[in-house]
Amino acid sequence: MPGYSHILVTVDIEDPTNTERELNRAREIAEASDARITLLNVRTPRSSRYNTYLPKTFDADEQALHEAELLKWADTLSGTKWPVTIRVRVGPVAGEVLAEAKAAEADLIIVGAHEPSAVSRLLGSNAERIVRESPVSVLVAR
C-alpha cells in the first residue's frame, strides 16, 4: 500500500452507514501510513429567494449543525496517533471535494458509494465525477 500523508474523507451526515465504512477505511490507511485525516462535509447551497422565509441565523445555524455532526464523527477516531480535522464547505459536492483536496494538499480522497438512482445513472454521481476529475487517488468505500 502506498504511503499517504493526508486523507480527505467525505462525510454525508445523513448517511451514517457510508460514513462509518469510509472512516473504517481511513483508519486502516492512516494507521499504516501515519497520515492525517480531514473529515469534509459539503452543504448544499440554497437559493437566495428563500431568505425572506428563513431566520437570519439560518446559515450560521446550519454551519454549526454540520460542524457538530463532523465533531461527533471525529470523536470516533479519538485516541489515535494521527491528527483529525474537520471542514464544512458549501456548494456542489464534487466540485467542493476536489477544491478542498487541492487546498489541503490531500493525497487520497475517500468517498462513499450510494445506490445509483435513475438521475445519477443519467447524469453521473458525485463519486463518479470525483474519481474522473481527481488528480490524486480516490478510494470508493462500498
Architecture overview:
The protein has 142 residues and is α/β, with parallel strands linked by helices. Helix content is 44%, strand content 21%. The chain has helices at residues 16-33, 58-75, 93-104, 118-123, 126-133, and strands at 6-10, 36-43, 84-90, 108-112, 137-141. It has a 5-stranded parallel beta sheet, with helices on both faces. Helix 2 links the parallel strand 2 and strand 3. Helix 3 packs parallel to helix 5. The longest helix is centred in the N-terminal third of the chain and has 18 residues, at 16-33. Mean pLDDT is 88; it is low at 117-123.
In short:
By secondary structure, this protein is α/β, with parallel strands linked by helices. It contains five helices and five strands.
Entry keywords:
five-stranded parallel beta sheet, 5 strands, 21% strand, alpha/beta, globular, 142 residues
Present the secondary structure layout:
Elements (H helix, E strand, L loop, with lengths): L5 E5 L5 H18 L2 E8 L14 H18 L8 E7 L2 H12 L3 E5 L5 H6 L2 H8 L3 E5 L1
Parallel strand pairs: 1-2, 1-4, 2-3, 4-5
Helix pairs in contact: 3-5
Low-confidence regions: 117-123
Q: How many strands in all?
A: 5
- Write down the overall geometry: globular
Helix/strand-derived category reads alpha/beta
Mean pLDDT: 88
Strand order of the largest sheet: 3-2-1-4-5
Order of helices and strands: EHEHEHEHHE
Cα-based radius of gyration, to the nearest Å? 16 Å
What is the number of helices?
5
Rounded to the nearest angstrom, the distance between the terminal CA atoms is 19 Å
How much helix is in the residues? 40-55%
Largest sheet: 5 strands, parallel
How much β-strand is present in the residues? 15-25%
